[in-house]
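Predict the assembly for these two chains.
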Amino acid sequence: MRKNDSVIGQLDWPLLLVFFLLMGMGLATVYSVAYDPEHPNLFDFSQKYGKQMIWLAISLFLGLLVFLIDSDIYRRFSLPIYLFVLGLLVIVLFMPPINGARAWLGFGGMGIQPAEFAKISTAILLARFLSSLNLKQQNLRTVLLANLIILLPMALILLQPDAGTFVVFTSFLFVLYREGVTYDPIVLKIINLIPGVNFKQTWVGSHFIPILFAVVFLAVVTLLFSGQTVTYELFGGIEVPGAYSVILYIFIFIALIFTIVRFFLSKRERKQALIIALLSFVLSSAIVIVIDFAFHKLAGHQKDRIELVLGLKEDPDGRDYNRNRAMAAVGSGGLTGKGYRNASVSSVRTNHVPESETDFIFCPYAEEWGFVGSAFLVILYLFMMLRIVVIAERQRAAFNRIYAYAVAMILFYHFAINIGMSIEFAPVIGIPLPFFSAGGSSLMSFSVMMFILLKLDSQRKDVFN
Amino acid sequence: MQSNNRKYVLISFIVFVGILFLFKLFYMQVVDDSWKLRAQQLAEKRREITPPRAVVFDRKGRKIVSNMTYYNLMMVEANITDLDTVAFAKLIGWTLEEVRNRFKEIVEGEGVYRNPHTGKVTPNYQKIRPYPFIKELTDDEMSRIAPHLDLFPGFYEDVTSMRSYPYSSGANVLGYLSEATREEVDADHFYKPGSIIGRAGIERFYEEQFRGKKGVKYIVTSAMNNAIGSFEDGKYDTIAVQADPIKLGLDVALQKYGEKLLQNKLGCIVALEPSSGEILALVSSPSYDPNLLVGNRKIRENYPKLLQDKSKPLFPRPLASEYPPGSIFKLAQALIGMQEGVIDENATFPCAKSLVGCHNHPQAANIKQAVQFSCNPYFYSLTRKIIQQKKGKNDFENAEIGLNLWAKYMNSFGFGVKLETDITGIRSGRIPTAAYYDKWYGHHRWQYSTIYSISIGQGEVTLTPLQMANLAAIIANRGWFYTPHFVKSIGNDGPLEQYRKKNYTLIESKYFDPVIRGMHAVVHESGGTARLARTEGINICGKTGTAQNPHGKDHSIFIAFAPMENPKIAIAVFIENAGFGGVWAAPIASLMIEKYLNGKTSDPAKEKRILEATLANLIAEEE
């Protein structure tokens, strides 16, 4: 009894509240989007909202189940769980394809997607593995093993193929980064091949992941500007080639950060910061110029393809159909929206936005509630992710912390890509908005993921590690 | 390894993306309007509902223009699945070839966008857009097709309304409707490509009074362009309002009778109500059944035929053909002469055939008899007195001053000026002025002897039949007229402002008496030129005219009003190439008068003679 009391007492209520709030808002939006005047009952199980109600009940039941199980079980059985899900990922490849992907394990009319649960099993095993490491003694083997845990399910998911979930798995790289797993052993291996060079540690290797993302980000921005000229009306209409414009922005950005940061630094640190700032400016400029040069050297059809992917070429009724409709829905919401059940672009009845009750559910929500509603949702997700980071940081057990970070980063990916694809910030990749989108597998897996986190957190004081 | 600081990298990532999203969302949803427009384009269709045009009644309340419901067979290619072309062709009664050609025609015709500014044509066919596959099917035709349409998804019926003319009469008065041209669409937002617009007659003149008020319905449409429902419960919708009915002064029975009388003849009849200026009948022969030009299909089929017809059925003769008025013009000359004081009603001039040719008749002792006998030398001399009034230094100057004075009188009769009648295609006729002859002969190089044929309504003088009828009305009214017009009332409003104002000629009413007595004698006394117009029980006042025609036989003219005591109808009849006015035009006019006043005619022999006469060799005319 005492233990149960402590579970309730130690429960993170803010997180649970946001969880229920998002679920409720999601259900309301599904009801609005898929509303059928002939079946107005929310509990009409022939309708999408009726089905969503069933999934909601199942998810909460699973959550309760998770709560009753001793949280130590995940740590102890992390490998069997991981291998079991991996097995499911293999089996699913032999199932008949639905919508061109072998992603579903069917039980009669219902089906689940093992890939959704692979996120949890991978998070658990990764937490187990990293928590057992002595981070001071990293070597090639530990780096490779950590990456193998991520890459195995990724490879199987790519075979389905499910590009969305595949991309989400790269969120684990951030977890590795947070835990201090460096790619230095790999980088050193390569760098030290050069005769006369014998580094003990490289900056690139230890910050490999953020640098990788920064380079990718820079590359995309450069390609967006490459091949066009930017006109500055403020300065008498000077025309600047796109790439140089990007370099100008980088300079402004770094200068801005530096000016702000230097207030918080000592004199010695300021000098260091200046060197870092200059160095990163020179390096990123170099990257921009190289990519710009390479882009101009590309053959025409390759250029076309890249331009289409980046949305530089307009094709609103062809390749850009989904994004164009999604943006029309979101953009037409205005400040306060068109009102509940008044989404004229993105409701299922009008069907301008495809998958508007699942992957594109942000569209009807933003259309109905406008900027006020969408800002509220963005802030809600931000709160949830930052709350999880706070929870992660208060854990005594490394396992708990790593798992919490994994959850935070998975949510971050889903949030960034799902909302990003409706506002031109991410490519159109079909992944659900956590707790919001209609669909059983994602709702169940996110609920289970969340309740494991809540359970681990509630028992954080029992664990002495 | 200061891995604890790395959490800030992750937190910055999350916060950075979140803030970026908020800015972008704010820009997209609040600042930038372009996505709202895009959304409207996609999902909110503004459907304009054009009401049926106003219906038209004649003076006795008979509906002469009404609207009939027709159907378009619409097609949305995106919704067509597994079309059984053979069965479909069979259903609509076409050959396979025709069905295939129609598909092609839609893509290349209706499915093309014409830039209104550059005129550039670009293909714009869209599979999700509805196009009319067959236009203007009748109720009968549609009822055969409609029950089977659910076998052919992608096809559906759409209701339109079109004109119908139950009396098949008055085509030149009513005009017809056709699709608005690109220029008309550009000039007025009321019209969209495919909208109909009045093309001739009163339909064109009163376009704004006919078309009514459009309704607007905002509807939410799906990606397949199907209507889903009204937008925000129809909060912004407006109802289409049909324009008020239009009542004409026309008597459709009289109009139809006139058309019948003129069968196999070239010519026209204009009948007015002198007290109001309302046009009772305006017959142009040959004419056509207005039902021939209803809807695109029929217009495409019939219009070219009517246009190429050598007898010009589309040409509104009463309004637009300018003929020398012949002897009816003498009535005006007599009135001007008395008003100017150059003669009095007992003036006499010898019938000197050396001046101008004449027929044999007793000497005219006064104006009444001059009118009765239509004595040419009499009016030669009379007009000479008007024009050569010795107001200048020599005969040339006299003629110049006199002619301009005379022209001013004539203009006050509505001659040589366009009557402001409510129809398009009106012409002014010609009353020559000094400037006109100066151009021909040179300044002060002409005098009355040069231009004398105007005295008997020949030469340079021309009038339209409408002006001739108006002359009869002026005399019936003793000096004034309302501008002849068709529309008696629009809804609860009377005729337009300009038809409620009396136009006074420059002739005082006291001078009309001798002329009217003369016109009575023309019909009712021996020696009168229009004895064939005599009608039991009606005092008809008339005047014959015969217009010389350089291309063939003379035109037969007669104007009249009746009854003499209380004129109810003024009429002009003009029959081309029919010879002397008293022979054909006069009896036709008398039949029209009798028909209008008594509702029936009493002289079957007279009527039979007219109906059986073929006065135009229509085939020979084609030359």
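The mean pLDDT of chain A is 85. Chain A touches chain B through 54 residues (CB under 8 Å).
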